[in-house]
Amino acid sequence: MTRSRWTDAARHRRRPPARPTDRNAMRTFVLLLVYILFITPAGLLGRLVRDPMARRWNRSAATYWIPSADR
């Protein structure tokens, strides 16, 4: 069987397929680092600075109902 020069050249140019699991693992690791290093501390600092839902306990209050502003 003879080989043509076109099929021989194409065979040498082929690259092995990239392993997507390696890329996905690296992407997951980088996103985990970003979350741990930036998102989590920002959320914890935000909770220490202020309470956006006003969840303080008031023993003298009969109810915590806040009437709607549009009524």
Features:
mainly alpha, single chain, 71 residues
* Beta-strand percent range: under 5%
Number of DSSP helices? 2
Rough shape?
rod-shaped
SS-derived structural category: mainly alpha
Major sheet attributes: none
Q: Spans with pLDDT under 50 lasting ≥5 residues?
A: none
Helix share of residues?
40-55%
Measured distance between first and last alpha carbons = 89 Å
In round numbers, the mean pLDDT is: 80
**Order of secondary-structure elements:** HH
The total beta strand count reads 0
Rg is 30 Å
Write the layout of secondary structure elements.
Layout: H1 5-13, H2 20-49
What does this entry look like structurally?
Keywords: Membrane, Transmembrane, Transmembrane helix. There is one protein chain. By secondary structure, the protein is an all-alpha fold. The protein contains 2 helices and no strands. The longest helix has 30 residues. The chain starts with a helix and ends in a 22-residue tail after the last helix. 0% of the residues are buried.
Summarize the structure.
The protein is mainly alpha-helical and 71 residues long. It is built from 2 helices and no strands. The chain is 55% helix and 0% strand.
